[in-house]
Specification:
Strand content: under 5%
Number of strands: 2
Distance between the termini: 17 Å
Order of helices and strands: HHEEHHHHHHHHHHHHHHH
Oligomer: single chain
Radius of gyration: 21 Å
Helix content: over 70%
CATH superfamily: MFS general substrate transporter like domains
Amino acid sequence: MAPSPPLQADIPVRPPLRALLLYAFGQLGWSLASFSVGNLLVYFYMPPEQGEPIFPGFLYQGAVVGVLTLIGILSAGGRLLDGVIDPLVANWSDNKTATVGKRRWFLLRGALPFALFSTLVFFPPEYAESASNFVWVALMIGLYYFFFAFYVIPHNALLAELGHTPQDRMMISTMISVAWALGFVAGNSVYVLQGVFEQAGYTPVHAFQYAIASLNGAALLFMLLPALFLNENRYARQTVNDHNILQALRIVFGNRNFRWFLASFLLYWLALTFIQLGIGFYTTILLGLDKSYAFTFSLVSFLSSFLLYFPVNLATQRLGKRKIMLAAYVLFGVIFCALVFVRSIPLPSTWILYSLGIAAAIPLAVFGILPNAIVGDEVEREERLTGAQLSGMFFGVSAFTMKVGISLANLVFPSLLLFGKSTDNPLGIQATAVAALLFCLLGWRVFKGYREIQV
């Protein structure tokens, strides 16, 4: 089939560096805005126990429906809702026509409510366990995830459209990986900011809330940069689409290699979410360090991974994406294996923390760069084979897969903590590391079925 007609009157040109930086700032913004709900819900609503809990019990802390927890159910339910919304927003974005650009139209309208509801999730109306808190958190999580998809899916779709060649897509993927990591590291500074506000005389709850609000305010500014200033019509390769959602999904899932990628991507996000949810527990309970060291671990990991971005690009050019991804699964699994036995390692806790942070740099660099580049390659391949330009739907389906993995992790992680999350009984925390190790091994096995496509 011949490619669909271009959406723009003028032939789009390869974007200059300033345009790509604007795009990357949007990634930094949504990474930071999504950090709190994605990584701190369990910490705030089911806090670690070092003597007295850090925060009061806003929600019931025990098991419900067997071994599940209220915060686990809310977190998983929000992610599943987000996953359902993803393909709807993706199809809407693919078929949208707007003078400012069909992706920017969503960015302009989604940035403010995204940041707002990311903050309000942590402002329950009652200062003690209550049904109104449960209703509030459920409502705020639902609104947050709607606007998360509303902003993120169109933003991700621009990667394939701004990247005119595989080399361009690798470069853009590297840039947004750096931006995502900066957002993640900035998000972890919430522990430090909480301490600053506490020293200023605020209660732990208010200190945490003000830290969240400050970070999400900065996130909003970054998200608005591409929404306001990126010239999508000049730089993005786009075509007119009229596929309904079922037609688009049939095309995307008809790609066999993409299905192998999606299965492994699901397992990767299960493992990664476990470490993101567990950072506060691993540092305070297993290593016996202050909660601020959770930020130190993230900072060491991601700063080290920055140094590896260029080598990862070179290695990928030489060995291909498939081999590099398989190696990253193995290395990620080794790190989780070390966490299981970290209490038996006869070294100072700070040494272990820094060592694990540096070791995590390689898989974080690989997984930060290659998945988006792989999806972008599949978008171009599909366009060449069928004429269908469905970058929104390809990235929407991959985002849906990611969120299913995160949902399952948010559901299972708190349940494992029921086995023990205290200094005297860390069995539940150790169990989370064992589960993440298994996810890495399964991800490696599944990704072996992927066959890299030369586009």
